[in-house]
């Protein structure tokens, strides 16, 4: 069993880096604070006897040697970057639970057959640099390195520049190596486990998600003398498209999601009808067929509304992450570990994307969830119970041991 | 009669300062380009024998002496600042038509009894620093100087700093002096004169306008796992409020206006339901009673929608400019000048705010409109016919002479 207190203390120490007034964390990818968080993690891993490397994407790998160095390692990990108004647990918990597994095995003097590895994947959130999960995405072959390096934040700084600047641009190519298995433990970020009073989520997969930029282009004109009837006003299109997309999600309730996290306006002058609105659209569904149908409907809705109002419109596909089914053996390793430990549990699908989505393309993978308070995440008030975090790390320990000693 | 070619040439020379790719002008208030535009105007006025001063708000006054220096001057003027995607005529025409009146009188060797003045009012557009018409507003006592100096642009720079930086912060107090009359000639910025094939608009007043910041505050949460039904999503409120306000404007068609020129989102992350949206709302109506009723309905709509969705909301009154009726004698001076000159014309109310709104509080005031192409303004494609601009300046000349020689 792992040491729940030490895990909690490490979580709180990490949370101090980028701590916000409202009790959350703002430690966005490739900022100075991200560097501080990485440095602390690397220090902890070296103290725990791991050998630490990082690759050209800044993904960090801390390896605890196994008895048989020829066996492919069993990997766990998640991310240390946060949302701008993020919490203390999203991602960080998965990284530090992995470290806690290593520390607990050290305490108990247990050696595994295969090596164990704890990974930190760069820019999982997609908040500073879109898309999400780009560190694991390049590593697993979904994105090119050049594409990743060229991604820009809102100030126009590139991923590549910022990675070099914080000193985490390694020389090792970001590409897959043979792995015996990969696990990731994470807070649920939704309300189901808490509502059903279950301690552990046994994940069978991840829902599909599409990101778009919808641009509506109208005709700027003066807020006073211009007649309402002849305006080509992007806001007149916006409200109808929002309405239709919320209705589309409701048609596919309870699983469909429609989210609008960001909007940009040009020229952005109070007494001028805007020329342009750019809306970030995020559509999700666990069933890839339904998500594809939603994608189709979205395009129809935008085209029809734009046409009605005389707007030009563009839909740019920013990111697509199809629905994922995890590896049956890894899922079974989690299921049997939960049973051994006697935790209440539920089989479920993740609503959020995780690095495991991309890792699952190149290695047998699965995930473990623990409840979080009121299902809140991407919120500074994000919270989780120490006992649940401990339980999740215990499941991780058991599952990793099963796969490392096979 | 004035010299239409010289007026046009001066307009084009001024338009080169801040010229945009699309044929418009971006010469926002208190920028380096605004300074260049002011410098050029001051040079032209000095060349025309005027004495030039500017006050603590950066309002510029170019005076052409009269025979009787004890008589209160007849003033004309408008503004040189533009929208970020503005045109070549909005404001600038009123300033340069005033200069053309002076030049034409010089050419003809005509002296007036009372002095004439051409004014440039600072930051009329309200695009860089809200509210609009703040230079004439302070001068006429609507706003305090401290309030004006503390206004910030989107980068947080203050009006006061920027005014000092460009060297147009004078020592003369910005406060009214006795004026015999004040006139302003402007492009209509709407489609009516063009549609009705009239050359001159004889203005009886200006419609009422209210600016607000509507803030909707929800609960940030994750775009994936968070259930749609329990979200407190500001965008869910936004689309309903937009819909209701467009319907409200339609109820009071054809004169009511509802415009949303700007929107801000926090935290602005693609996969996070926003915490906050701030929408710039501009409501207008020529009848102050109807505008007051619209104001009331706006508050009810926002409160009801916010309540339905569980959002907090705030409405901040950014600016109120009640409906204005111009001075009967000044309107009559314009009307009779138009008749003398034989131009087709229409009596109308301005849909846009103008410096004359504030000047009319402290001096007898009225305005003259000329058509603009397709009614387009606050748009780089803004355009007007040289003959119409010439006609408007002729009307201005006649009206000013009437009042200066009474
Ligand atoms: N776990 C998490 O916050 N992932 C970011 C990717 C997503 O938007 O689901
Ligand atoms: N004329 C003009 O563009 N004025 C700005 C004030 C307004 O929004 O009406």
From TrEMBL, chains A, B:
Signal peptide: none annotated. It comes from the Bacteria. Belongs to the peptidase M20 family. Keywords: Hydrolase. This is Zn-dependent hydrolase. Residues 205-306 form the Peptidase M20 dimerisation domain. One of its GO terms (molecular function) is hydrolase activity. InterPro entries: Amidase_Cbmase (IPR010158), Bact_exopeptidase_dim_dom (IPR036264), Peptidase_M20 (IPR002933), Peptidase_M20_dimer (IPR011650).
């Amino acid at each position: 069993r792992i040491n729940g207190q030490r895990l909690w203390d490490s979580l709180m120490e990490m949370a101090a880096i980028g701590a916000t007034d409202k009790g959350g964390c703002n430690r966005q990818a490739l900022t100075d604070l991200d560097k501080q968080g990485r440095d602390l993690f690397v220090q902890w891993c070296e103290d725990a006897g791991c050998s630490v490397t990082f690759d050209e994407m800044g993904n960090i790998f801390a390896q605890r040697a196994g008895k048989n160095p020829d066996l492919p390692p069993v990997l766990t990990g998640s991310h240390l970057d946060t949302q701008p108004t993020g919490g203390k647990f999203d991602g960080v918990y998965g990284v530090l639970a992995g470290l806690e597994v290593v520390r607990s095995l050290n305490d108990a003097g247990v050696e595994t057959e295969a090596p164990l590895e704890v990974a930190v994947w760069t820019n999982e959130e997609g908040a500073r640099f879109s898309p999400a999960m780009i560190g694991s995405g390049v590593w697993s072959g979904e994105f090119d390195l050049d594409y990743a390096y060229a991604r820009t934040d809102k100030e126009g700084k590139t991923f590549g520049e910022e990675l070099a600047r914080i000193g985490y641009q390694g020389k090792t190519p970001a590409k897959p190596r043979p792995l015996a298995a990969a696990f990731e433990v994470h807070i649920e970020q939704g309300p189901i486990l808490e509502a059903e009073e279950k301690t552990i989520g046994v994940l069978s997969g991840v829902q599909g998600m599409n990101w778009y930029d919808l641009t509506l282009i109208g005709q700027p004109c003066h807020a006073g003398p211009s007649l309402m009837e002849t305006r080509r006003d992007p806001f007149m299109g916006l409200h109808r498209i929002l309405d239709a997309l919320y209705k589309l999600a409701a048609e596919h309730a309870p699983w469909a999601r429609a989210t609008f996290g960001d909007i940009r306006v040009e020229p952005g002058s109070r007494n001028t009808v805007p020329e342009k609105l750019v809306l970030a659209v995020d559509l999700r569904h666990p069933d890839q067929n339904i998500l594809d149908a939603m994608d189709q409907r979205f395009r129809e809705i935008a085209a029809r509304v734009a046409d009605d109002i005389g707007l030009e419109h563009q839909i740019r596909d920013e990111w697509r992450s199809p629905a994922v089914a995890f590896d049956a053996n890894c899922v079974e390793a989690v299921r049997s570990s939960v049973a051994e430990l006697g935790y209440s549990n539920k089989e479920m699908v993740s609503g959020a994307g995780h690095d495991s989505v991309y890792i699952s393309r190149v290695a047998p993978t699965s995930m473990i969830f623990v409840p979080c308070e009121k299902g809140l995440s991407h919120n500074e008030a994000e919270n989780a119970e120490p006992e649940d975090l401990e339980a999740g790390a215990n499941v991780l320990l058991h599952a990793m041991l099963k796969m490392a000693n096979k």
